[in-house]
Amino acid sequence: MKYILVTGGVISGIGKGVIASSVGTLLKACGLHVTSIKIDPYINIDAGTFSPYEHDDGGEVDLDLGNYERFLDITLHKENNITTGKIYQHVINKERKGDYLGKTVQVVPHVTDAIQEWVERVAQVAVTPDGQTPDVCTIELGGTIGDIEGMPFVEAFRQFQFRVKRENFCCVHVSLVPQPRSTGEHKTKPTQASVRELRGLGLSPDLIVCRSEQPVTNGVREKISNFCHVGPNQVICMHDVPSIYHVPLLMHDQGITELFIERLQLNLPSKRPRRFLSKWQDLVDRFDHLVKEVTIALVGKYTQLEDSYASVTKALQHASLACNYKLNLKYIEAADLELQKREENPVQFHEACQQLCKSDGLLVPGGFGIRGIEGKITAIEWARKNKKPFLGVCLGLQCAVIEFARNTLDWKNANSTEVDPDTPYPVVIDMPEHNPGHMGGTMRLGKRQTVFKSENSILCRLYKDEQYIDERHRHRYEVNPAFVPDLEASGMKFVGQDLNGERMEIMELQGHPYFVGVQFHPEYISNPLRPSPPYLGLVLASCGKLNNYISKGCCLSPRQISDDESSDEEISTVSKKISQTTLQVPKGQ
Fold it and tell me: Which residue numbers delimit the CTP synthase N-terminal domain (predicted)?
């Protein structure tokens, strides 16, 4: 097993996750099996109560694991996310059982040993359908070097490099190289200080990745090489690029693939395959040449921080790129669409309404709590009445059911028991698994099977007419099955249900171009080369291409994704004119 540790310096959020994913992508393109581990030094046991990214086995983990899965097309597990809380819980449990034989339990060696054992164990777990044991494990250490929370992990890896031998371990350090406007030149002192601190803690970087807004000069790279005790070829520049899909290609162009092959003594041919990284190159070429734009309105309650909807945003980008459209995503605060906002701040209310009305499609993502519910319901009503493409995910599905019950079935007080426990029409109810008052680990989580109950379904077609699908879930509330017959009689069809037919998983509205709700989270397994079908359907419908896509067997041909809706008619007209024209060919030719 080969281990690649990725650390960060100067500032957090510098792009360690993308760098780690890109390193894995390059090695996977060489034919190696790659897995990933994300280390978060916070005390929380998991990420379930603040920024969850749900996984097949029901674990709630950091959002960065989504990057690894999307880049590497693998399925990671909850054990691939290590937190300080998990490690300390593990050590304390062993102490309570008497595994340490009455010894004083300390950070060194007990906590550091637990970290090393965890990494070695998880690195051996298969993450691909073929069950193959990984060859390489990339490890991202969250935070920045010098953080007090991360010290036990740094010490653990200082020991780990001797435990697994030098030829099986290397360290990549990602550091900021700022360029102050006052001078206009790149400054290397922050990187020098960061590397000095890393070396002082016992880890020497084998590769320094310089993050900057603009490309750094060779002079700057040589200076970093001289002061940081690495060769010039071990310093690479990673400046800001239009999309993260450029990063693996940019790293490969700077010789990183060969560097890792040599440093880790990988038995790989020196000559890369002819089609090496061709899929990524095609992806980047398409992204760089996008001209047409599709506008999607995202109505949610956490719009101040875009990372709150990171997985949703990525899924929309994947779908838009597959359709050859540039995504213009408009974040709308759900509370701004409520009647109370119109009275308190009419300008803000009308601005939100204007953004909604200018969009080509509407997405209402998942969430919890009362705030913004009425605003989401208002947006969904607008999409239903104006035949605008709509996708509701988790809470978005539940809000669509509430809106339909109120305005179509005339159940004016219909609601969710989460919002109004005393509603006479509880069309959305809590599940038996939900334990009120205890937030952590109380939801229906992980990959669950959904069975299509009707072949006459848009989503069934988008999923290539599969009889059932496996998607990830994360919810406490669900559609009340007692009201399903009334809803379906009025045109709201629940075309996908769980294995027992008790839980409503997929909703479609009859007579609407694309009005779809799903209880699961399809964004969690979307990736750039295989976009999520519900999100692809939303973007296709918003571009006016959904019917054309379905009629052609759900295949995105180059012509289909690049032509306008009227292009087929125009081509037919041009062909007819040509056939009616007599071509004058000179004699003798």
Answer: 2-266
